[in-house]
Amino acid sequence: MTRDRTVLALLVVVAVLLAAGPFLPRWMISLFNVSMGYGIVVLGMMLLMRTGLVSFGHGLYYCLGAYAAGMIDQIWNVSDMLAMIGGGIVVTAVVSTILGFLLSKYREIFFAMLSLAFSMILYGLLVKSASLGSTDGFNVAAKTLAGMDITGKGLRLTVYSVTVVVMGIAALLLHRYLASHRGRLAGAIRDNELRVEYMGASVRATVHVNYVISAVLAGIGGALMAINIGHIDPEMTYWPQSGEFVFIAILSGTASVFAPLGGALVFETVRSFAYEYSPNTWQMVLGITMLVVMIFLPGGLWSLFTRKKVAA
């Protein structure tokens, strides 16, 4: 049996990113922050896809995490990064646990469209909520980290460092979960639910747990994005946002926890440079990128590494 070097690789990647932080230009820090925020969300999407489910409405939890972080600052005047991220975790965990009782009954297109319906319901509520800024949203500002002041020149680097650490922890915990008994059931449920039930495992309970984990990861990503960008609005739960997560998940593949993180970086890099050099046709560039990957790498970008491993 081959040794699993994923944990060691994750630690190395986190250490390298943290060490490189002070030397990176501002535009690259922003690019990495957005990529890591998206990557954390798509980690949860990967878990659902391994279970045989695709969510077209994961913007619901991405937006809930962001708004939870922002409302902690607006209502209780708490602008600590850890508290804001914690607020996103709590809100998304509670909401996904409740909705999970319903969604765990459905599969295929019914699961996808029902998840989309809930995200659009939230969009409609936020657009009509004048107290939350309606379509304009409102600004978010993180000022402390565990009680220490982070305003001023060090804010950008601090947000970057926290995002790197949170990304590493999320990927590590998900990797451990996927290696557990319940985590291994995801692939079995995708292949044959009836056999899983015959083995004595509850399919609905496993789908429910996986859904909650996926939602919490999306909430963490949303909270980090709110802190990084400094502004939130209802567009975070609109269907194109959820579509981007599905796009990245397909682009990445599901073979490793590194896949969503790398796929998010590729997606954001292509989009940023395409928008800069071809602002009128950047969507076409993304579409062509997706077509090329689907034709030549149907297993996603990460299949480049798995193919090499098999060939060796």
Uncertain runs with pLDDT below 50, 5 residues or more? Answer: none
Strand order of the largest sheet: 1-4
Head-to-tail CA distance between termini = 15 Å
What about the largest sheet? 2 strands, antiparallel
- Taken from the alpha-carbon principal axes, the silhouette is globular
DSSP strand content: under 5%
Could you tell me the number of beta strands? 4
| Proportion in helices | over 70%
- Please identify the structural class as seen in this structure: mainly alpha
Mean pLDDT: 89
Write down the domain tally: 1
Question: How are helices and strands ordered from N to C?
Answer: HHHHHEEEHHHHEHHHH
Radius of gyration: 19 Å
The total of helices stands at: 13
Keywords:
4 strands, 312 residues, mainly alpha, two-stranded antiparallel ribbon, 3% strand, globular
